[in-house]
Amino acid sequence: MRILITNDDGINAPGLEVLTEIATELAGPEGEVWTVAPAFEQSGVAHCISYTHPMLFAQLGPRRYAAEGSPADCVLAAIYDVFQGAKPDLVLSGVNRGNNSAENVLYSGTVGAAMEAALQGIPAIALSQFMGRETAALADPFECARQHGAEVIRKLLGRGTWTADDYRVFYNVNFPPVGAAATKGLKVAAQGFRRDADFTTEPHLSPSGKRFLWIQGGPQHSPTLPGTDAAVNLEGYISVTPMRADLTAHDLLTDLAKQLG
C-alpha cells in the first residue's frame, strides 16, 4: 500500500510525526509512506488552493517533501509532481492539534486535504486530536490518536463505505480529549454545531501605532447536539463522520423548485 500523508500544522508538527507512525504501521514492511506537507502552518485555510501564485516545493529527504502552500496544494503536488500523475492508495491528513468537529470542519485545512484527495478519486481520512485539560496533563497529548489511530483506519478501510461517484465519500475522525485508556470507543456521528463558538476579531495596536486584527475562535468544549461529533468527543468517544464535498441542500431542491415555479 502506498500512503500519502499531509497536514495543516506544518511539516515539523508533532501530529505529523504521530501520523507517520500510524501510516507506517498500516503500510507494513512492503508498503510506502510518502509525506508532502506545508512548509509552514496552514491552519484555517480550509480547501484553499494556491491558484494565483506559484509555490516553492522542496524535497527534504527520502519520500519527504514540503510545499509553501495549503494542504490541498500538497495533495495536488504529490499526485502530479511527486507521483507524476499516479495516485496513492490512501491519503491521511493530520493528526491535527485540536479538534475538527462541528463548525471547525468548514475552516480546517486538515479536512481540506482529505476533501481534495476525495475529489481526485482517492480514499481519504482526516484525523484530529481534541485537546483539553486531560490531554494537557499527559506526557503525550496525542496519546489517544497514537494508540487508537491505526485501528480506526483499519475499520474504515475494511468496513466503511467508499463510493465511486463524483463527490466521493471521505471520513473525518476526531479523537476525544482524554488519554488512550480512558477512551470509551468509537461512534459514528453527524457534524454538529456550537452555537456559541463564532469566530470574531480582536484589534491590537503595534508599537508604531498601526492597527491589526487577530481572528479569535470561540469556546471549544461546548457540546453540540446529542449524538453529534463534538458531543460524543466530550463524552470520551472517537467520532467518525462520513462527508462529501457536495454543498447542495438536497432536502430543499423539490420545494424550492415548486416555490419558484
From TrEMBL:
GO molecular function: 3'-nucleotidase activity
Enzyme class: hydrolase
Cofactor(s), names only, from the UniProt record: a divalent metal cation
Swiss-Prot/TrEMBL keywords: Cytoplasm, Hydrolase, Metal-binding, Nucleotide-binding
Catalytic activities: a ribonucleoside 5'-phosphate + H2O = a ribonucleoside + phosphate
Statement: the UniProt record of this protein carries the keyword Cytoplasm: yes
Annotated EC: 3.1.3.5
Cofactor note: Binds 1 divalent metal cation per subunit.
Location of the Survival protein SurE-like phosphatase/nucleotidase domain: 3-195
Listed InterPro entries: SurE, SurE-like_Pase/nucleotidase, SurE-like_sf
Domain of life: Bacteria
Residues the record lists as binding a divalent metal cation: D8, D9, S43, N96
Annotated localization: Cytoplasm
Gene3D superfamilies cross-referenced by the UniProt entry: Survival protein SurE-like phosphatase/nucleotidase
Function: Nucleotidase that shows phosphatase activity on nucleoside 5'-monophosphates.
Family: Belongs to the SurE nucleotidase family.
NCBIfam families associated with the record: PRK00346.1-4, PRK13931.1, surE
The protein's name: 5'-nucleotidase SurE
Organism for this UniProt entry: Pseudogemmobacter lacusdianii
Upper taxonomic lineage: Bacteria, Pseudomonadati, Pseudomonadota, Alphaproteobacteria, Rhodobacterales
Gene label: surE
